[in-house]
Amino acid sequence: MENEDIKNNNSLVLVDKKEESFAKGNNFYKIFWVFMFGCFFGYVYEVALHFVKFGEFVERKGVIYGPLNPVYGFAIALMIIILENVKKTRNVFLIGTVLGGAFEYLCSLFQEKVFGSISWDYSNHFLNINGRTTIPFAIVWGILCVLMIKIVLPYLSKLIEKVPNKVGYPLTWVMVIFMVYNLSISSLAANRNLERHKGIPANSEIDRVLDKHFPDEKMREIYDNFEFTN
Question: Does pLDDT of 14 surpass 60?
């Protein structure tokens, strides 16, 4: 009888282990899928915003492949990592406002220094900071943090955890490999685009492949809103 109880207990332990979600808590898998959600959300938000302003549908992507904008993905993933243990809504808003404004500023600075271009310029906006962000937009980031942490994340977290482990583990790594490639080829193509703008000829096989598959016209189609700086 005692041996049978031990076997039953061991079986329960094994069942519990099997049922534990691959994305339990805010582990790598959970944060990665939140990042992917943010990438898609950013794309939808930018397209909708452009449509409201100008009445036309224009893709506003951040990478070559897929309806994705990694700026939003990284921002939302950063929110989760930093704000997950902040309980008071007011503190989430305040920290999110500062982080959001700083993140947008640094992204603009990085793009200009590395790729010689900008995708937004708020120089003519009210309370702008070097044209890279504005106080009102930073406040919008704070509001977005509150909505994300208090409303969206709990629902999204449960949704991710419902994915079976046998699907979740391999699918995550397939998407990780895809995004690493996507970000890498997008960065190489953007850098080569800058070199062409400067009149630098193709000096390697990689340059020639990039020139063939991602010429200036293609890059302008993908990144509709970027402009080279002087």
Answer: no
